[in-house]
UniProtKB/TrEMBL annotation, chain A:
Its cofactor is thiamine diphosphate. It comes from the Bacteria. InterPro entries: THDP-binding, Transketolase_N. Residues 87-261 form the Transketolase N-terminal domain. It comes from Ahrensia marina. Pfam families: Transketolase_N. Belongs to the transketolase family. The keyword Cytoplasm does not apply. This is Transketolase.
Amino acid sequence: MRNKKTSEEVALGIRRRVFEHSMRNNGGYLSQACSAGEQLAWLYNEELKLGDPTLPMIPKPFEGVPSADNPDYHTGAGYNGPFEPQYDRLFIAPAHYALVAYATLIEVGRMAPEGLEMFNKDGSSVEMIGAEHSPGMEVHNGTLGIGLSTGAGLAYGRKLKGEPGRTWVYMSDGEVQEGQTWEAVQAASFHGIDNLYAIMDVNKQQCDGAMDSVMEVGDIKTKFQNFGAVCVEIDGHDINAMRDAVKEPHEGKPLIILANTNPFHSMPILEERFPRLHYVRFKSEDERARMNVSIAKDLGVEPIDYSH
Amino acid sequence: MEPIMVEMVSRPYASAFEKFAVGKPEILCLSADLTSSCEVDGFRDRHPDQFLSLGMAEQNMMSFAGGLGLAGFRPFIHTFGVFMYRRPYDQLMASIAYPRRKVRLMGFLPGITTPGGMTHQSIEDISVMRSIPNMTILETGDATEVESICEAADSIDGPVWCRVLRGSVPRLFDTPIKVGEMRVLSEGDDILVVTSGITTEEAMRARSALKEAGLSIRHIHLHTIKPFDHKQLLDHIGSVKHGVVTIENHVTEGGIGSLVAETMADAGVGKRLVRLGLKDTYAHGGSRAYLMRYYGLDALALVGGIEDIMGQKFGITEEDMEAARVDDVHSLVKAEAL
């Protein structure tokens, strides 16, 4: 089910869907679509080895949290296909990228467009901050920093069982402020967990603003290398660079790809909102209208009719 | 008084865990730099394929264990109890408890069983675990319970918090933990005494003196704290005339005292309840016997609680108690003086 579209086309489709959704809902995680579009497109459209979805194209409503009284509980991982030894697994560590991740599922044919209409609606499983039961999610990651550790544990376990499938973690650069990220890298290196892969959206933004104004983190690549990972730094909007980066030898070590990105890539008008890009809610009808026209032009679509 | 002849068992967890885990490749032994302190050093040396050293990095360890659970393994995490919930509480919630991973949290040094002071004494863990959805809580009170804790914990479809005793442990019982049940140690009809962990032995020390004072004590011991059989407890409460005393190696808020109080309040039971334990206080470093006396967790404190309910003094002194065991702080059965 892959390669019907190029990954560039998928990235554009992701941005168009997030743009339309944000316009109609007077805000959204627009900047994350700018920075992450190519990475998620590349993962789902080319790199990840996934089986066909096992859950309905139109997501089911929320069916309760895990408990002994909820025996039919399942996560949203079925949108990434079945758990089989040969298949890859993916965690979206920055769970607030959910809107972008859902748009990706639609673009690669794993979820129906109706799924995005359920976003952040009461009683829906398509939650604003991706939950375990949200489409494409397998674990809770809304608390930043736990994703890579969980991935390391899963990868180690799969290695013990001789499963060839890889474990991928999609990360954001703000997570390197959390100490747990460094604990995870040192453990993955110490235990030779080389079936663990991460690609990190290095957009240098976090909730309060530009990372350097909130907490400087220094040279992430050198730090990852010193903690025992193999780390490759690329242009996060260059899909060919991703194709090359994943070939980097990393025997006995996890591979972390740092994807340097532009938080207003393909939507330059968003720069007006710098440095508060975490969640873009339009400040006025005028701003909404201007952004609608500008971004629609950049993405090659008609402005969105959000009047009703 | 005539001393109870108590068999002391050396390092019961060490042999019990090894016996349990060998031949079960889906069981993994995780440790955070307290391997000998948690009596799994021999297991590490003899079964390295099932052992995983995760270093002093508990946040990673908790989420990593969640990932192992996702891969179909049943990790047994070994460290001091405090280190498994205070710093990595967020990871415990998100990576283990919420998704009901079959992670077995073997918490050593419960309450004041260590002279390590505030940083080493898990005095509020039961309170914390009781409020976590999906969590099961087991507590060991003797060597037989330590010997059966692994199988009991591993029978649970979800995460399990265990308070594990180490070193030299008395043998009080001859049957293993049966999850969900409670042990009835005496069936009197004046006062119900509810204990768990190390306070059970204290209540047993006071047994003869209370009998001589003419009191008929009903004593139950809890190894399963969550889930809990409220109905059975209510039946025991209904069998005594005067009231209930709980005594626990834990703060009195949220532990078994609270558990009994909630059960009584929910059922509208109008009997007196005295809850003994750490009274809204941290403890400090000292020997177990000293700390139990200082903070009112010992046999004498229990007698005081019973006197409170009965409204009279029985003149029982320490000399009337059965022999207390005096543990050597630098005992060879512990990895260090903690």
